[in-house]
Recover the amino acids of this structure.
């Protein structure tokens, strides 16, 4: 730990006092030995003087000096990077419910895997984070506004229904509107809480047009998200070989990683590719850690205080055991 990791490094000046005490103790021990050696009759001195122990007699003082060093470090305010739960954030979970989600290339199906992992994400997310839910096919619906109550989100995930078309841009705009409305309510002197969109989708936008740069398209919405400082964590799940049966015909429904990746990049977020149920679970777990916790420099003096207290107790105990007195 560097000196830059201490809040009050000037307390280390106390180490000079500890060093002076150490030097003084060594000097006193040598002076005492010199005084003893002034006796002419060393044979008689050996008979009448009490037997002195070896290095053990220095143990109480050594432990006491070590305790002073540990207490000095604690007073200097050591800090360390620690993961702390987020208690002021908004997350909108946006789930694709287009017909392509019936594909079984991710077992048991894309939609079932998405529901399972979305519920796990909601359950494991830090309790202080406000979580909302948007589902989208041809249109987008805000099923749950941001809330710290997870049961309503889980119920809404269980009740997702598939429909035709894929309006990715509409879904992102709906999520942004929900975030803005919630932020206006809970905003304080620090402004609205930080927000993020988690997008789970498998296919290319089809409405209002396949063009992501359409005014209501996915790329346009991603740029709006970037302007609002709401990054999108986009998860593309499925394989290039997925198929579904529509109107009695088997139709290919490959994932569209390219457009999903661009949405994430335009928003300032991250893109994740999940081709199996296990990979999807890993991605969701990673996002839960990233979103639910943040790394901050926090006080780390407690271990030093504990170590110093233990050293002081051992110093007192060893002094009583060895010399029948406190140092």
């Amino acid at each position: 730990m560097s000196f830059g990791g201490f809040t009050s490094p000037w307390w280390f000046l106390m180490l000079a006092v500890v060093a002076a005490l150490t030097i003084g103790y060594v000097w006193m021990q040598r002076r005492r030995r010199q005084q003893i050696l002034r006796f002419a009759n060393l044979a008689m001195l050996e008979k009448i003087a009490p037997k002195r122990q070896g290095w053990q007699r220095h143990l109480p003082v050594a432990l006491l000096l070590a305790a002073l060093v540990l207490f000095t470090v604690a007073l200097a305010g050591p800090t360390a990077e620690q993961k702390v739960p987020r208690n002021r954030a908004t997350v909108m979970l946006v789930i694709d419910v287009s017909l392509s989600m019936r594909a079984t290339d991710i077992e048991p199906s894309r939609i079932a895997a998405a529901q399972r992992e979305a519920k796990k994400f909601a359950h494991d997310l830090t309790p202080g984070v406000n979580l909302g839910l948007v589902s989208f096919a041809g249109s987008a619906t805000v099923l749950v506004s941001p809330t710290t109550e997870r049961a309503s989100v889980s119920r809404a995930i269980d009740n997702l229904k598939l429909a035709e078309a894929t309006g990715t841009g509409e879904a992102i705009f709906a999520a942004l509107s929900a975030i803005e409305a919630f932020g206006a309510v809970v905003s304080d002197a620090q402004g609205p809480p930080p927000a993020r969109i988690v997008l789970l989708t498998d296919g290319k936008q089809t409405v209002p047009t396949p063009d992501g740069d359409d005014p209501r398209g996915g790329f346009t919405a991603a740029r709006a998200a970037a302007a609002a400082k709401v990054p999108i964590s986009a998860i593309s799940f499925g394989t290039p070989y997925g198929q579904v049966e529509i109107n009695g015909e088997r139709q290919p429904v490959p994932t569209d990683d390219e457009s999903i990746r661009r949405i994430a990049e335009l928003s300032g977020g991250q893109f994740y590719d999940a081709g199996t149920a296990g990979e999807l679970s890993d991605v969701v777990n990673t996002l839960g850690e990233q979103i639910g916790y943040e790394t901050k420099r926090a006080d780390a003096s407690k271990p030093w205080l504990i170590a110093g207290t233990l050293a002081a107790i051992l110093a007192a105990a060893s002094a009583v055991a060895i010399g029948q007195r406190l140092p």
Notes: The first strand starts at residue 79 and ends at 85.
